[in-house]
Amino acid sequence: MIQDIEEQFTDTVDIVDRLATLGARYDAAPNFPVESMAALIRSGHHRRFAPQGCGGQAFDSEAARNRAMAKNLRQVGRGDLSIGRLYEGHVNAMLLFDWYGTSEQHRWLTHALDSGAWFGVWATEKAPGVRLTQVGNASLSGEKIFASGAGGLDYALVTAASTDHARRLVIVSASDKARADLSGWRVRGMRASASGRYSLEGVAVEPLMLLGEPGDYDLDPRFTAGAWRFCATQLGGIEALVLEIQRSMCDGARANPVQRARFADAVVAMRTAGLWVAKSAESFAAGHENAVTMARLTRRVVENAGFTVMEAAARILGTQSAFDGQRTDKIIRDLSLYLRQGGPDHAHDEAAKTLLDHDIWSGGERLW
Ligand SMILES: Cc1cc2nc3c(=O)[nH]c(=O)nc-3n(C[C@H](O)[C@H](O)[C@H](O)COP(=O)(O)OP(=O)(O)OC[C@H]3O[C@@H](n4cnc5c(N)ncnc54)[C@H](O)[C@@H]3O)c2cc1C
Fold it and tell me: Which superkingdom does the taxonomy of this entry point to (predicted)?
């Protein structure tokens, strides 16, 4: 059991530095980041949030588990946001196995993790999307887009729709290079996340590969409030950028009150985002009815913090922040793309509607 979370993360500095060093290489020559993922296996990240019966770590409570998760996601994001994206997908998959997997599927997962398998969750698609056909032997049609780790991960949980039911999760192989198309993944950042297209046309579906029931994946608060996890990962990138500004700020800028104020504002934005991510993780762990709104608001707080810190980097460091090969440049390129998650204004507007109706602050602090 975890008594002191801090003690569990003595590997923090090592893994952040290791991912950052490897990240520069994978950014320059984007291939699936095999060595970075291997480093995460060695550091224990790979299995930490798997179901307990599959070798996942035992935590004192859901709150402790989510606190540890936030810390791990931030840490990996601080090293390299592309790996953060892949890791966040893997953690999401472990949770989905935990919530919806049968004992037979947990046995299968244990073997897969024993062999070092990495998982993703692929939901994004263009219409008509991925469908599960039930005529004769079940099989899939269609393709996923923005499929992080396409052709490089071992397995993905994909959403599939069918005529009679809500969409459901199917476990598929993600490593078939002939099905992966990375030709369109020509992006300024997040290159090593390899978020290409993946064809699922004709993939046969055994009953063991159906995870949960139709509709399970979309159940709230888990689905919408789960956004806190990508916020935590993005926060890691923001923290890495603040660290770079602090390290690289020249003496002239340090002696200047305007630049100092800018740096302080960047730190406040970063720490504010940290408080919201922690609060959001806590609400998620408690299964609070406000968890969905907390996560939606956290998305906006983290997005704004990202913009503040990226602007501070440009204004404090000048052109140095934009040179190829500079860590600052890579973090900004990665962060600016990774912050672009689905429907940001819609999410914020939904939160605003809720707030107009009632305050969501927990701990007896509600004002209306
Ligand atoms: C690096 C990276 C990795 C990813 N990995 C995965 C993954 O592994 N699995 C997965 O399932 N998904 C993944 N995604 C996809 C992600 O979850 C989002 O679907 C995607 O980022 C949204 O892209 P978009 O901004 O182009 O959104 P779009 O929905 O195409 O919107 C584009 C713009 O139009 C605006 N817009 C759209 N509709 C409206 C409207 N009705 N009203 C007002 N404005 C509107 C949006 O706010 C946005 O600014 C990944 C994305 C990235 C960037």
Answer: Bacteria
Domain of residue 210 covers 5-218
* CATH number of the domain to which 278 belongs: 1.20.140.10
Residues with CB under 6 A from ligand 1: 85, 89, 120-124, 146-148, 190, 193, 195, 337-338, 340-345
Confidence (pTM): 0.95
Measuring from atom 39 of ligand 1, which residue has the nearest CA?
343
Expressed in angstroms and rounded, the spacing between residue 224 Cα and the centre of ligand 1 is 15
347 C-alpha to ligand 1 centroid (Å):
12
CA of 303 to the centre of ligand 1 (A): 14
Give the C-alpha separation, 347 to 152, whole Å: 31
Q: What is the pLDDT along the chain (368 residues), one digit of tens a residue?
A: 334 444 444 456 699 999 999 999 999 987 899 999 999 999 999 999 999 999 999 999 999 999 999 999 999 999 999 999 999 999 999 999 999 999 999 999 999 999 999 999 999 999 999 999 876 689 999 999 999 999 999 999 999 998 878 999 999 999 999 999 999 999 999 999 999 999 999 999 999 999 999 999 999 999 999 999 999 999 999 999 999 999 999 999 999 999 999 999 999 999 999 999 999 999 999 998 899 999 999 999 999 999 999 999 999 999 999 999 999 999 999 999 999 999 999 999 999 999 999 999 987 888 99
Domain annotation covers residue 366: no
Distance 340 CA to ligand 1 centre (A): 6
Same domain, 244 and 317: yes
The answer to the question of residue 45 being in a domain is yes
Tell me the C-alpha to C-alpha distance, in Å, between residue 95 and each of 138, 179, 226. 25, 26, 10
**Number of domains into which the chain is organized:** 2
Q: Are 260 and 254 in contact (CB under 8 A)?
A: yes
Report the CATH number that the domain containing residue 193 is assigned in CATH.
2.40.110.10
Please identify, by atom number, the ligand 1 atom nearest to the C-alpha of residue 156: 8
Structural contact between residues 251 and 304, judged by C-beta atoms closer than 8 angstroms: no
Phi (first) and psi of residue 336, to 5 degrees: -65, -30
Q: Please check whether residue 160 lies inside any domain of the structure.
A: yes
Tell me whether residue 362 is in a domain.
no
Give the DSSP letter string of 7-32: GGGTTHHHHHHHHHHHHHHHHHS---
**Which residue minimizes the CA distance to atom 36 of ligand 1?**
343
